[in-house]
Amino acid sequence: MIAELSRTYSESRPGYRLVGIVPLSMPIRIYKLRVLRMIKSPVPIGSEYVIRAISVGFDTAATISEFLGLEEAIVSDYLADEILAGNIHVSSDSSLKLTESGKSKLVTLRKIVLETSEVEVQIDQVTREPVFFVDLYNDAEGIFSEIDSVVDSAQDIIQADPIRMKRPTRSDFDLGRLNKVYGTEDVKFVEVKGLAPKKFVEKFKLTWLLVFEEFGTKKKLQEIVIDNGLSQLHLNYVNQPNFLSSLGVVISEEQEATDLFMVAEDFEFPTEVLETLLSIRREIPKIEAQDLPASPSPANIKVEPPGVGKFLLEKSSPSMISVFDHRILREEALLFAAKRLFIVSPWVTWTVVNRDFGTKIENLLRRGVEVTLVYGYEDGKGDDPRSIDLLEKLRSKGLILMRHKNTHAKIMIVDNCVIFTSFNWLSFRGDPSRTYRMEEGLEFRSQVFSDFLALSLENKIKDEQI
Fold first, then answer.
1. Is the pLDDT of residue 400 over 90?
2. pTM of the full predicted structure?
3. In sequence order, what are the residues at sequence separation of 6 or more whose Cβ sits closer than 8 angstroms to the Cβ of residue 345?
């Protein structure tokens, strides 16, 4: 489990390294609430046929009975139910007509009932928010039975401190939040009438506390993983001042070494490789703590941002890039490129190439990174003049800007990393909160290949630019 978490989240915070993974039990209380719920349920088939028959002009029990091929007594029972429900009106001449309620029911063919019932609701004792988890445990011993290969005993599983509050009342349960977690399209909470007399049940949820450390400053940042995903609800809680010390969590070299060995064992590295990795990790704090050499001109000292150089690393095999990975890679390229950034993309729009983008390009140029941007598709109607103007002004700072006569290529080369993709680097934001669209890419990490491709593209585009 530790190895899987490390692989998944080790690079989730640019500029930080993952230094600790700690099992954390989250207290959950289960209350029984008396609630009024609005339930939509399918209309009985007989009632549906009766309503449909009236809607097309059959207006007596006899004609409906003949039309449906049912006994008149059965049809009369269905009619009586719908008359009582207010869906059918009997006129003075005894003819049957649908009321407005009946017409509405004809559209949805669902009946709505109000039901008072008791439901169990889980409340996270840290966030005080309603939650729903399938796998809950009675105590740390129960959690230990699942992860006994990760810790030595149940005492090693740290318990989150709950917010201490008196027994809640019905006003403490927000209908909107309850419906978000427990409601469905057909079942909605309308009113919380109160808590059942029975005392709450205390359970615990297994979560994982991830501890990150910022390169250089050693500033800590925490995240919580619940059910294979990062929890946004717990961010403020786990990043309170002195949070780690309040729980008695100390991330030592030994802890880092243990995590490293557990991750490395998953890949079946030889012992000598593990020892080398551990010795490198132990040297990192010493290197980070070193003072800059004295200089008569401090302003001339070149200080690289944390993370610069990550795209210089090479890999023996290519890897797939999914749609939302592109946005992260583009952002990291703008921050961490060490020697070059070369982007080819058909269109340029303000959703991507804006003031923030320009500032990051200017920072790269100031650090001596060679930046080449190539764009241009047919008559350029898809380009934003504001973006073009911004890039033109950056020419004076050293930006190499080329307008191709007609390209549909989408390529990014950052240091030794090459990405071929369908993703429009200079016009598509790739925001995960917006409508999903499939964009796939392939990443290569090779200095020889990236140098060759950059030179080939530069020569080709020089011959084809406008």
1. yes
2. 0.46
3. 374, 375, 409, 410, 411, 424, 425, 426, 427
